[in-house]
Every structure is written in C-alpha cells, then in structure tokens.
Write a structure and sequence with these properties.
heterodimer, A: alpha+beta, 4-stranded antiparallel beta sheet, 45% helix, 19% strand, B: 3-stranded antiparallel beta sheet, 8 helices, 9 strands
Chain lengths: 335, 285
Amino acid sequence: MTQMGDNSGGQRPAGEDRPPADGPRSPWRPEGPAPRRSAGLEDILRSGTTAAARPHWLARFGGSPRALVWQVLAGLAVVWLAATSLHQLGPREAGVVSTLGRFGRTIGPGLSLTWPWPLERVLVRDTGALELLDVPDAGDNVMLTGDGFLINIGWQMRWSVSDPRRFAYASAQPKRVLRMAGAAGLRTALAATSLATLADESRRPPLEQQARARAQAEADRWGLGVRIEGLTLRRVEPPAKLADGWAKVQAATADVARLQDQTEAYGRELTARSEADAAAFDKALVQYRAAPALTRKRLYYEMMDNVLARNPKVVGAPGPMALPAPRRPAAGASQ
Amino acid sequence: MKATTRPNGLAGWLAAYPLTFGLAAVLLATLASAVALVGEDETGVVTRLGRPVRLAAGPDLHWPLVEQVVRVDRRAQPLVLEQVGFTSAEGQRVEIEALVRLRVVDPARLVAANGSVEGAEQAWRRLFAGELARQLNGQALGRVLGAEGAGLAAPLAAALDAKVASSGARVEAVTLGRVTLAGGASLDAALARMQGRLGDEAMLVRERGQDAARLRQADAEARAAQIANRAYGQDPEFYDFWRAMQSYNAVLGGPADKGGTTIQLGSDSEYLRQFRGTGSRGGGQ
C-alpha cells in the first residue's frame, strides 16, 4: 500500500504528467490522497517548485513559466529585429538611413541591413515614380496676363524625386514649396504673355516650358532634390464676365490660324511650281546647249503642231504671219 | 510556508516587491527622458526651467525633469502667405500669394523669445503680410507680375528680414506666387474695361494675322522669283524663246481656248517654207 501511495503525486517526469484520469484506475491502487485540482494562477506564479504543479501546456515551452516569459521576449526581439533592421527595397526605391537622428547613408534596391530602431531609421522613397500636382484642387485659379487680363488657369505639374536625401531633409513641407514654385513660375511666364497668345493653343508650349524652368529654378534654390518633368496648362478660360469678349478673341485666333494655313499652302505651291518650271528649263537648256539650232526648230514645230491642230487656220492668206519664226542660231553653230 | 518561500520568476518578484519595481520603472522613465535624439535637420535648445542654457545636436544627455530639449528646425522654412492685399499704382485692388523662405539662425534667441518655431509662426505671418502690403502699395501691376525681372523680390526679402532680425530668424527670399485682382467694386469695373478691350483685342488679332499673311505671301513670291532668276539667268536669250513657246502652247493650244482662234498662215510664212518646196534655204529669211 505504501509504495502505491509513493507512486501517486508529482514525482513523475514532466513529460508524463497528465491530469487525473477519469477512466478506471488500477483496481489495486486506492483512490489518491486528494483529487488534483487544475492549475491555478498561484500555481503558475509559484513556478517550478515541483514539476507536478506545472500545467501540461507549459511543458511545451520547456516546462517553466520563466522560460515562457523569456521565449515570448525573445520572439518579440526577433520580430523587432526583423522589422526594423531588414529592409527590402524595390527596383525604383531608395532609403534614407538616419543613425540616432543624423543622416547616415542611403540604401538602394535589394535587401539591406541596418541597426534596429531606434538606433537607425529608414525612410523609403519611390524615386522613379512620376508624381502629379494639380492646381487648383477645386474652384478657380484666376491669374493676370502681361497685358492685364484675368484668366482662369488650371495647371498640372509632373515631378519626381531625384535626390532622396535632399528631398527628405531639405524642407519640412516639400510639396508646399513645389506648389508655390509652380505658381511663381507660371506667374512669371504669364507676365510676359498676352491674352491673344494664350488664346492660341499652339503658342502655349513655350509658355509652359518657361514656367517649368522657373519652377525648377525655385525648387533648386530650396535644394528640394526634385526634378520637374513638366508643367501643363490643362484649362484656360476667362472669368464668366469676359466670356463674350473671349469668344471673339478665340474666333479671331481661329480665323488667323486658317489664314495662316492658306497662305502657307499657297507659298508651298508657288515654290513647288517655280522649282518644277526651273527644272524643266534646266533640262531644255541642256538639250539646247548640245544642239542649239535643232532644239529651237524642234520646240518651234512642236508648238506649231499643238497650236495649229487645235485651231481653225487659213493657209496661204496674204499678210504677215501671226507667230514669230524661230531665230537663226548664234553665229558659228553648224546645225 | 508561503512567506518564507523565495519568489520565483519575474512575476513572482513583481508580486513580492511592487514598490521597488514601481520606483525602478519611474527611475528608468526619468533616465530615458534625460536622453534626446536631435535629428540631422534640427538643433536642440536645452532649456532649464524654461530658460535656454545650451544647444544640443545628435544624441544628447541632459538633466531630467528640470531640463527640456526644444527642437528647432534648422532647414529653410516655407511660410506661405495667402491673399496679401494691396492697391497698385493703377488704383486696382490686387491680391497675391507669397512664399517666404525663412531660416532660424539663432535657435536660442528664438526659443527665448517665442518658445518654439510654431509659436513664432503666427506672429511672423501677421508681420509679413502687413509689411508686404506696405511695400507693394503703389507699385505698378506690371512690376509686381514680373517681380524678379523688375528687381522687386530682393528688396521685399530685405524688408521682411529687418522685421524678424530680433527673433533669431532670417528671411532668405520672398517669391510671389499667383497675382490676381481682388474682388469687389474695383474688380467689376476692371472686368467691364477688360470686356471692352477684348473686342479691340480680337480686331488686333485679325489685323496682325492679315499682316502676317501678306508678309508670308510676299516671301513666297520672292522665293519663287529667286528660283526663276537662278534658272533662267543661265541663258536669258534661250529663256525668251523657250518661254514664248510655252506661252503660245498655253494660250493658243491649251484646252482653255475653246472656240479656237483662226490663224492665218501667209504663203511666205516660215512654217510653210518646206510646204512651198524651198526647204534647202535657211530659216528666218
């Protein structure tokens, strides 16, 4: 009986620890001294006094609550390390690494290793992507032209980050600066532009170019590290009160454009015709120089063929002839 | 039994000595607050009980509780002023937006005077808007529109800079953004004037277009004449003959000559020379 009693209780290895079986026990074994209660909080806290006190699920973590705490901490540390010191950057990305708040270095595409946060921090920027800035967001954006007219202009700026370090550090509000740089560029370009120029869509690109260059210069003065790819006028219209007058200007502009097309076509045609005539003369001249008298006669007879064949004629009538005779070739020509 | 047991594990220790652990935690937090990481783009101003005592950069250790680190951005600050109104030389109410590039050059002085950049910003805005309006009043609109070319931007920056010199900041540049006319009665009058001018503008566009068209036409004709001169100048005498043949062909032998022109060929005509049977003679006699 006594050895049986020794067997009960908690001296078994942790791996064999099981809750008291509900099933039938060995018939020769009496009921245990007391039915074991399930593990309470105290048991867990009073960790590791005896293996018997440990609940079975703890066994999986090495058996002791202390080990569990350390394992959880270690797990968190691994997650923290992986999340803040391993950085995978895409093909068009660049990362600015700051070490204890100071600029450290930049990292490129691929997998990079840094010290974990808060020792090092990485700011990732998409460098190849074109970003769009539209002004105004809503409503009107009325500006003044060089000749003192008001015009409502909607414009768009396309830009990309060319230097991630500069972009990260140059200014706290780079986009705000960019927007103002664009507005300033456009204002300067407009100051040198008349309303009539603005009415003619074909004359806007130089204006846009000028505005872009000015905006880029302003962005460079701020050292923003951006490249302004382009600035486009997307909407050019007058304030409502100037709509009639604007329509007149646009009609005139369209008429002028048509007139320009016409005169250009005329000029092209005239040039082509005179070149063709000149080429024909050149060819005739080559033949004439080879055989002056013969060429004269041939041209004369060809002309007479054509003229006389198409007109009524009286042969043998008195009086001078209506058409001039070919002159005799220059002295010395033998044909 | 329990009282004599040595506490086990972190939780056990926590439960056994809550006061000790609490104090340790407070101590740790206090120590942590004694460290400040001042970034690449900022300067730390260490204040002791609100009074600036020294500057800090990078990781900085200071007394906890009594000392604080105020971060001041060292970069150029973009201060956008929207809708600064003034009256132009033409008597027109004008509204502009302006971008002021401002840099804190004396962070300690700034913190002593204003507490922080954010605290100073409101005051600066008011100051700048007033000064800009004062400087621009009475300026011709054209000059304001082309401010950079007209040499207006630099004096504006200097005027604003004078206003903030005492607060540890510098105005590096002023850039005017959009320039437009302010609303109200003066705008209505200006719009009415513009409407009238637009009619003239349309006429002007037409006239200019016609002048340009005439010019282009003359150019084309001159170019054609040049081509002709170069070609026919090689042999003017042959040109005279060749062109005459072409002209007869075109006028008398062309499809335009519908009814026909009766042509008399005299018996002594050169054309009929061979017809008369006197072909051996030279032509033209």
